[in-house]
């Protein structure tokens, strides 16, 4: 296999990984990481390994990594 073929296959692998995980890949693991889901920011609390944000009415909401993966998330705000 040539180097060029290997390099061209890497983006395809990354696209396939995003497609199977809701489009964003694995969730970040660093404490205080920020991701967006359904128009709301969620911050990773390191000591509890949960994602904390607010709902549409401004009430606090905590999600596990699995819950956030299921409802979809991105690294940037998507309107």
Automatic annotation (TrEMBL):
Top-level taxonomic group: Bacteria
Annotated segments matching region Disordered: 1-30, 56-79
Start-end of Basic and acidic residues biased regions: 1-13
Biased composition range(s): Polar residues: 66-79
Protein name: Uncharacterized protein
């Amino acid at each position: 296999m040539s180097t060029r073929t290997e390099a061209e296959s890497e983006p395809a692998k990354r696209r396939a990984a995003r497609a199977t995980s809701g489009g964003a890949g694995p969730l970040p693991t660093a404490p205080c990481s920020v991701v967006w889901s359904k128009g709301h920011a969620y911050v990773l609390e390191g000591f509890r390994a949960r994602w904390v944000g607010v709902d549409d009415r401004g009430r606090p909401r905590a999600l596990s990594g699995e819950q956030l993966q299921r409802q979809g998330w991105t690294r940037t705000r998507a309107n």
